[in-house]
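Annual report, structural modelling task.

Input specification for the guanosine-5'-triphosphate complex:
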Amino acid sequence: MHASYYHKAHACIMVFDVQRKITYKNLNTWYQELREYRPEIPCIVVANKIDADLKVTQKNFNFAKKLNLPFYFVSAADGTNVVKLFTDAIKLAVSYKQDSQDFMDQVMQELENFELDKKVEEEEEDDLSDKEEYDTHVAKPHIP
Ligand SMILES: Nc1nc2c(ncn2[C@@H]2O[C@H](COP(=O)(O)OP(=O)(O)OP(=O)(O)O)[C@@H](O)[C@H]2O)c(=O)[nH]1
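The model returned the following structure:
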């Protein structure tokens, strides 16, 4: 996947299809690639399509356990765990963003703050020049 897809990501949801073993096997490759670009972001593992055969929820999927990642059984078709999964992912992303020790995040944060400071300064300058314009256009009382 192109590096730009990982850019500024604060969480990752890795989904595999319980009906296609290859998608589970491929998680290793996806995970390695993710960590190249985003070494510390929270990552959640999702087993999707459990509606097709609920017995699959009795199985062990060690990939997540091995890496100590949160794991969810999901059905996008009937909605099982979908809201829970996204709510938890958002919570993890927000808390990661607020307390990231990752060098690239800190650089990005500095750049964002710099942009914000610049905007505030420009707005303040605009306010001042409006005021000057206003002052120069106020009709002065004529004192004979
Ligand atoms: N039974 C079932 N089918 C699902 C579920 N989620 C997706 N599908 C079906 O799986 C197929 C692929 O879904 P897409 O939304 O295209 O997902 P994708 O990630 O683009 O999948 P791929 O094209 O297989 O890589 C579609 O026919 C969906 O209807 C699910 O939870 N249960």
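The chain has a mean pLDDT of 89.
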